[in-house]
Amino acid sequence: MTVALALAALAMASCAREDKQEGPQPLALKEQVSSIVRSGAGYAVTWAGVLSNPNRWHFGENAVAVITAVDAGGKEVVHLEQPLDAVPPGRPLAFSGQAPSPAQPVRVKIDYRPASWRSIPRVPSAFLKFPISDVRTDKLTNGSYLVTGYVLNPFRKPASALAVTALLRDTAGKLVGGATSYVDDVRPGGKRRFVITIEGVRGSAGATDVQATTWGSTAKTYEDLAQAGAVSLHTIPPTTEPFVKDRGYPPPNDRRQ
User: Fold this and answer.
1) Which of 39, 123, 143, 250 fits a disulfide with 254 by CB distance 3.0 to 4.6 angstroms?
2) Which neighbouring-strand residues pair with 78?
3) Average pLDDT over residues 60-84
4) How far is CA 28 from the centre of its chain?
5) Across-strand partners of 149?
């Protein structure tokens, strides 16, 4: 046992040295999609993307998505820098946006400026996901999609503002559209309804993926929630009778039959 503990401590120390030498790995833009639709006297460019954070012990803060669109002559008609919410440790961040364009773009590109890093003060498991339930996706007559559902706050402190992003994928899993909505003042253990309209979907939607995170480019709000602790989400007592006899195995040091 002593040897095993020593080896485990040595491995952890080695990983810590490697992390210190190499530093956090950069975010990666895993998925992106954009569309161009006619809007009034001009056009509307919509986009959605997913940033992946491979670092379990760091938040990615102050990342900025850079969206550019050019027309048929190669002239830039849209250039927008979109501040992104803090990217949770070891998890992806879904984002979306829309911008007007006076001329018709033919190509849209999504890039991002690197994030700054913030070490988490607690273990990664303390940063719980915000559960999503009762998701419904309806296709509207104009070709848009309406996504509704509920987001729950698993922490003991109210979540003042949450960004909820719905991503649509086709039957092959390819991203075809997305949009973001916001909900305010989600009470501890409570849930709030979200309503998201997704326009400019490229193709048919076969699946809906909804993600929620704290609003803001820094991790402070998420850290405050994690520090408050989690609420118990299983408050309904069991209705079955207890076993007459415990059918589990006895503890290893308990030799009673």
Assistant:
1) 250
2) 69
3) 96
4) 14
5) 194
Please give the structure tokens belonging to residue 18: 């490697």
pTM (2 d.p.): 0.81
Give pLDDT tens digits for 130-188.
999 999 999 999 889 999 999 999 999 999 999 999 999 999 999 999 999 999 999 99
Calpha distance 127→120 (Å, rounded): 9
Non-local (6+) Cβ contacts of 136 within 8 A are 147, 148, 149
Question: Which residues, 6+ apart, have CB-to-CB distance to 222 below 8 Å?
Answer: 59, 86, 88, 127, 213, 214
Q: Which helix (DSSP H) or strand (DSSP E) does residue 6 occupy? A: helix 2-22
CA–CA separation, 151 and 183 (whole Å): 9
Chain-centroid distance, C-alpha 212: 5
The residues near 180 (Cβ < 8 Å, ≥ 6 apart) are 94, 95, 96, 97, 163, 164, 165, 166, 196
**Dihedral (CA of 58, 63, 65, 66) sign:** negative
* Cα separations in angstroms, 119 against 106, 155, 198, 218: 41, 20, 34, 12
Q: How far apart are CA 153 and CA 222, in angstroms?
A: 11
For the record, the structure tokens of 90 come out as 């070891």
Q: Which residues of 139-171 are buried (b: 16+ CB within 10 A; e: fewer)?
A: eeeeebbebbbbbbbbbebebeebbbbbbbbbe
Partners of 70 in beta bridges = 76, 107
CA distance 65 to 99: 13
Q: Identify the burial level of 251 via C-beta atoms within 10 angstroms of its C-beta, where 0-12 means exposed, 13-18 middle and 19 or more buried.
A: exposed
